[in-house]
Every structure is written in C-alpha cells, then in structure tokens.
Write a structure and sequence with these properties.
The structure is a homodimer.
Chain A lengths: L11 H6 L12 E4 L3 E5 L2 E3 L6 E5 L11 H22 L3 E8 L11 E7 L12 E3 L2 H20 L1
Antiparallel strand pairs in A: 1-2, 2-4, 3-7, 4-6, 5-6
Helix pairs in contact in A: 2-3
Chain lengths: ~160, ~160
C-alpha cells in the first residue's frame, strides 16, 4: 500500500540480510538478532547522537501500512530492548524512536525499520536534522561492541 | 525505570482518561478507543503537520523502559491503524511516528505515548521543531471529525 520502492532498486536491508557486506552495513554492526528481527548500528549518524540503532524485520515489508501486526509488534519489542541497552551501554540521558513512511515522511530505505536514538541534553536531534552523515565502519565498531557486550552479559544473567 | 514524573504533578493523560476535560484535551478529540488504548488529536501541533494524533496506553506507564511488551505492541498496532487512517482521511503524502523517553529525549508528558504525524513534501517537521504551539479545541475539531468519520465507515465496511 502506498509503495515507492523503484522497481530497479534492490533493497539494501535485504542485501545485508542475505549476508553481503557493504561499506554502510558490516556484520560487525549487528548488535541483536533473532528469528524475525535484526538490530544494527546505523551507517548514518546525526551530529550529537552517535551510534544510534536501526531495528528491522527480517521479512521485507516497505512500510507501516504493509507490515503485519505481529511483525510490527515484534520489531517494537526489540526496539524497547535496544532502548534499555542504550541506557546501560552508552549511559545516555534519554532515548527516542522514530519511523518514516514514504518520501514525504522522510523514508529513503524501502524496508520497514525503526531508528532508536541515544539522547543527550540539548542534543538538538530535530533542529539539526540536516547535519547527518554516513560514517565509516571503524567509527561504528566501538558502539556495536558496547551493545554486543551488554547483550552477552544480559544473556548470561 | 529512569522515571522523571514529579511526585506532585498529576498525569495529564490519566486525568483525561478519567473523563475530565481541559482546554488541551476534550472528549471530542478522541478518534479511536478500545479496552487498552486511546487515540486523540494532539493539543500541540507542529507548523506544517496540523491534526497529528497521540496514541497512548490506558494504563499508566511512564516510558518505553517500563511498558510491558504486550501493551507496547497493542499501542503500535493502533498507531499503524491511525497511519492508514491519516492517509485516507487527510490525504497526506506520508506518515511518521516518534516516541520520547526522559527529558533529554524530548519527553514532557509522563505517560507513554506515540506521536503519529501526517507528512507532506517539504514540511520540515524536524528542522522546524521549535515552531510548535498549542491550538484551540475548535481548531482540532475538524481533524477529529475526519478521523471519526473514517473509523465509522471502517467499522461498517
């Protein structure tokens, strides 16, 4: 419903899920994975919120209109898990989530995903919306490692 | 977990749920309601996104860290329903959702809730974050009525 994915454009999240790495998505970015869901460090960062996390369904749905209720629920339960993990692993002062549908709604990756942000006092996440940029895999790695360590301890607790 | 609600501050969403109206929350703002969830026109609007909707759990939980998984899921299933309704009732060009935790995460109402926005090309929802303001009940009413009409037809279809 209301789909915008160009017919000749492969889905970058599906490519990543198939096991292929790109400069934007490395296996080392993955912080949590289960049967239905994947969570990884976003390749694009906002200026004062480094290391935010993308949570996506493994099955391809373009947007919130299309995703089945049970898949949607599962993705948000993992987003909750990531929010708690960010508080512990990054010691951030808050968290927020957002999700975009269609080009007018800021969507530019055609596979349903949620952004989970670590938040800090006066980070101006919204006002500085234009100040986002892609970061190198080596910049993402220490953030991924903090969350991977958190989930490893969490599993064993 | 990580709670910030001042002890002497009553919860404005719980007050509304108890049946009391204020200038910010009227019964006529309600567009959808079931056993666990309520959706109503936000009293605060962003400059190019009039009539956005708040979806909240009826039971009081402060934030994403505290809300149980099944309640969280239910609230997002209703947010999906509202997103589809906005497309039909407002003829908007996209939708987006966001959810805030703790003051550093832009939270200022201490009861878990999701913002569901109608989106339009170049609406600059994020860049113009500071340009929000409370609007009068009479401004909210035509938006509420559009969604109420949608859900009435939806029930009968």
């Amino acid at each position: 419903m209301y789909n915008h994915q160009p017919k000749d454009e492969p889905c970058s999240i599906c490519i990543f899920l198939s096991g292929r790495e790109t400069e934007h998505n490395k296996r080392s970015d993955i912080v949590f994975e289960d049967k239905n869901t994947i969570a990884f460090i976003s390749p694009k960062w906002w200026i004062n919120n480094p290391g935010h996390v993308i949570v996506a369904s493994k099955k391809h749905f373009e947007n919130i209109y299309d995703i089945p209720d049970n898949t949607l629920s599962r993705v948000y339960v993992i987003a909750k898990k990531i929010s708690i993990a960010l508080k512990e692993a990054y010691q951030c002062e808050g968290t927020s989530t957002r999700q975009h549908n269609e080009p007018a709604g800021n969507q530019d990756i055609w596979h349903f995903h949620i952004h989970v942000f670590p938040r800090y006092k006066n980070d101006d996440l919204y006002k500085r919306h234009d100040q986002s940029r892609f970061v190198e895999a080596k910049q993402r790695l220490p953030y991924a490692q903090k969350l991977q360590k958190y989930f490893l301890n969490y599993q064993h607790s």
